Amino acid sequence: MSILQRIFFSRTKKENEFTIPLPNIELSNDSATVPSLQHTLDNFINCYDFVHRNLPEINVDLVYFGHLLGNDEFTRDIATPFANIQANEVGLLLQRSHYHQIFDSKSLIKGILDGGVAIFHQENVYLINAYKPDSRTVQQSETESVITGPHDSFVETAVINLSLIRRRVKSSHLKVLKLEVGEVTKSDVYILYIDGIVNMEYVNELVKRIRSIEVDAVHDGNMLVQYIDDCPNSLFPLFPASERTDSAVSRLVAGRVLAILDGSPSVISAPASFFEFFSSPDDYYQRWALGTATRALRFIAFLVTVTFTSLYVSVTTYHYEMIPETLLLTITESRSRVPFPPIYEALLMEIMIELLREAGARLPTKIGQTIGIVGGIVIGQAAVQAGFTSNILIIAVASSAIASFVIPSYIMSASIRLIRFGLIILAGTLGNLGLMMGIAIIIIHLSGLTSLNTSYLTPVSPMNFKDWRDVFVRAPFWALKERPAQSKSPNQLRNKMKK
């Protein structure tokens, strides 16, 4: 059997055993431990996917995880060179630049787990990177779809996400820091910022918070933000997570910091404001007047989805005098067969809408669409005919549900839907007073939130009218000359063009 065949097809005794005894030695993570073949094998005992290849003809041992390697990289850098070499030429081959000599066991173990191939030759150990696991191809984002503009989105592989950003930001000022999170998973976290634009206080604060995380595993970017939130008990998201490459790059250029977690398609940015969750890339890919109108529509949808159902409950329970006489007759006739108070009626229908929404999200796409449309029509019509609810309430609940879908951020939309239940209960118990109290509590809570130690309600609190040109409206590009004040960038000017 040739050396090339031995590398690919030979199997060690350890791989053929079904029962592998536990080691009798105590493993050490001391970085000063001299790397050795036996110490490495002991660390990976009982790992079926671990591969150990022995090449006695040239006195070389190879150690790696096959599913982490790319076939082309392995063939080019390992299989072919060692299959066409004599024993006395191995030392000269290993002097090439892509073979890195390792002097401590901790670096060796981490290198193997990161997709490297460990090469043991005589008393020396070398490591070569051949990492190229199978990954999802770059596709369109399903949660942040746009009509115009780029359609590529991030994937679960961090190196691919970095390449997507590097392709758009071709500057040496784009800096990338690498951290590690998770005591067991040891997931890589990459911190990205543009030197000269970002305020380094934000970078240092984000790095500090990530380094302070002490958990076994962090699987997704949306899970990571819950460990570094300024107020983890708040319903509102404090760190926007995006799957779109263009959104991430625009936030980088605006002076914000990005965090990419390996294994997650969501890229986190910080700091952020409440109003940032109501903007969409579509706003910048169409005429500024259309973008302004669309953004205004989203804020109207926010008010509708928060207050419409609760206002119906308040008015029909306590404040009939607010209803015009002609409409009052219609509402009275519609509610004449309903045996429940408006608060129970509204909560019942809101819960039913959430059940349909959740069922549609969990089922396959085609079935989910059918459940959402047919289920809503059938259940709504049947509830009215059976006397469980009124026609007016169906309109109110449906309008609130539709308005919640207008908000671009799914996380913010989910938070607002949950708040709606609290406002319905307050409106059903205290009327308009309870509704106003609920809205006041929300505003007070938002005013006290911070994102990376900056005000969450920027640019309303503290007030900054200049930033309103890119918050409540989408001003023409020639008018957007400065970066957001929240970024506290040392280089505020970003647009030198005149009208």
Automatic annotation (TrEMBL):
UniProt entry keywords in alphabetical sequence: Membrane, Transmembrane, Transmembrane helix
InterPro entries: Spore_Ger, UPF0353/GerABKA_families
Magnesium in keyword set: no
Keyword match Membrane: yes
Transmembrane segments: 296-318, 392-411, 423-446
PANTHER family listed in its UniProt record: LEUCINE ZIPPER PROTEIN 4, SPORE GERMINATION PROTEIN
Protein's recorded name: Spore germination protein
